[in-house]
Amino acid sequence: MGGHNETLLKDPAIEEWIWMRNNTHRYFKINKRTTPTLIAMGIVFPGLLFWFASSTQDKLKLGPVVKKSVADMDPLVPSDPTTKEYKEWRVSDLDGSSLTEIHMVLSTVVLSYWCWKCKTAAEFHRNPANFSGRSWQHFVFECTVFLVPMFMALTEHYLYTTIAVLIGTGIYYRKQIPNAPYRADKWAPDPRADSFKQSFAPGKITPKSYLSIYRAEMMLLTCFCILAVDFNVFPLKFAKVETFGTSIMDLGVGSFVFSAGVVGAKSVLPKRVDGKIVALSLWQQLKAGLRTSLPVLVLGIARFVLTESVDYQKHATEYGTHWNFFFTLGLLPICVPLGLSLCGDLRVTSMALLVVYQALYSLTPLGNWLEHADRTNIVAANREGIFSFVGYLAMFLLGMSLGQEVLPDAPTFKARRMRLVSVLGVWTTALISFFLFSFVLGIEPSRRFANAPYCFWVAGFNAAMLWVFMVIEEDVDSKLPPQLARAGRPAGYEVPVILEAINVNSLTTFLVANLLTGAINMQVETLLCTTVQSMLVLGGYTLMFMLPALLLYRSNIRLR
């Protein structure tokens, strides 16, 4: 007979073993027993996967064949670098750079945050009563640790030296953080768990520092690159590729959409209203999407009118003759509720979109038409923007699916740490999918048409970045004693001021950066600037697009 048997005798050894198994994540250490597992799962298995993908590369080719004429091979190069024609030619037919180089350059983003986090935690631990993250000294340090490495890495000035300095600085500050007080009974319940569980409220979404860092870093890189690409100090291998390939700016465009999706998941999560959990209806989601989209679409129209009126240089194969990135961003919130009405699982919807879109591109004449059609009508003239929207929508939905995992408050301390596993799962799935499409099927990533390999690459990279930020936060905060680790933290400890200001008004920052880029290009002949002049202009530009966000943040004003 079934049921509970209250006279069941419990074996203390089994009970202790169950407790240890359920709490292993709290006391995990690298030692002789765990090292072989880490090497096998972190090095050997990924290495074998990479070997298999590399050995089968181009064995099955499903992408459309790209053919070039002699005229395409040997174009007429404009001679005057101040002309619109030369500037458009300069960023055409680029091949990008390798994945290894891209990830090496962007590793400085993670290392910069690690340095800042370790230094801030060490100062807070030494004197928590008088700690302030809003002083001028902290502001100067933030600018130094976040902006200088970005300048050095994206202009190829001492990249390896920059990485070495960041690693050394991080190790120095990391050693200054004392360990948490010793607990005699290490298997006793964590004292932080009770207060964490008591503060949980269903439907409540509190700011997550790792999300703020992640979004602000992506925005900072994007805003810097949109002007830097117009200077000779910025390597063209980092600029957007023509059709197939990878580059830092290609990754930046996708990361902008993916990060917007992560935060956009808030609109579809259940809300807490008058103590009750309420889910939004389809009509409410559509209205919210329209309110979000309208200002962005207006900006897209304004950008088109302004660029046409001043005869600003334009690369037609980027988004099309009339389309621009604001139109893509503006249409995403409108289409998301429609996709959710078809299937409630965002992962299923996004994967279905990518598979169908890639199949149509690779197995039908659509791919050849997208690459080689003449711009004879409105659809053909803007085919890059129209058809890449399908890929960006799938990427946005992938970001929302990740946002559903990391945005809501965790009910328990254990659930909070288990989010690391969820994000790692997204990273692994996207990585395997990218290897499958890119190396096994031989389909190269294409930002121009936002194909499946490109979307999986962007999703995998962003999930990896978010996971690393979460690990850094968990590692550093675990060194603080319980009374400092979960409550009473002053402003400026969780997120750097400059990044928090950008995150709070991200769209405003992006708009200001675009306006400044246009103004500087009309007033300065960027291609004639020396290295020193270029760095000075880029430095001034970076401070100028950050200034409105800092002033708004100081005044406690939040726009978009």
Quick overview:
The protein has 23 helices and two strands. A hairpin with a 2-residue loop joins strand 1 and strand 2.
Secondary structure layout:
Blueprint: H1 12-22, H2 35-55, H3 70-73, H4 84-90, H5 99-126, H6 136-154, H7 159-175, H8 191-198, H9 209-228, H10 248-264, E1 271-273, E2 276-278, H11 282-309, H12 316-319, H13 325-342, H14 346-363, H15 366-372, H16 378-381, H17 383-406, H18 413-440, H19 452-477, H20 482-485, H21 497-504, H22 506-523, H23 531-554
Antiparallel strand pairs: 1-2
Helix pairs in contact: 2-18, 5-6, 5-7, 5-19, 6-7, 9-10, 9-19, 9-21, 9-22, 9-23, 10-17, 10-19, 11-13, 13-17, 14-15, 14-17, 17-19, 18-19, 21-23, 22-23
Which key terms come to mind for this protein?
mainly alpha, globular, 560 residues
Could you explain how this protein is built, in words?
- This protein is mainly α and 560 residues long.
- The chain contains 23 helices and 2 strands.
- It has helices spanning 12-22, 35-55, 70-73, 84-90, 99-126, 136-154, 159-175, 191-198, 209-228, 248-264, 282-309, 316-319, 325-342, 346-363, 366-372, 378-381, 383-406, 413-440, 452-477, 482-485, 497-504, 506-523, 531-554, and strands spanning 271-273, 276-278.
- A two-stranded antiparallel ribbon has the order 1-2.
- A hairpin with a 2-residue loop joins strand 1 and strand 2 (276-278).
- Helix 5 runs parallel beside helix 7.
- The protein is globular.
- Residues 57-74 have low confidence and may be disordered.
Which structural class matches the secondary elements? mainly alpha
Radius of gyration based on Cα positions: 25 Å
What percent of residues are in strands?
under 5%
Mean pLDDT: 79
Low-pLDDT parts are: 57-74
What's the SSE pattern? HHHHHHHHHHEEHHHHHHHHHHHHH
Biggest sheet, in brief?
Answer: 2 strands, antiparallel
Distance between the termini: 61 Å
Spatial strand arrangement across the major sheet:
1-2
Oligomerization: single chain
Number of strands: 2
Number of helices: 23
Approximate helicity band: 55-70%
Q: What best-fitting shape do the alpha-carbon axes yield? A: globular
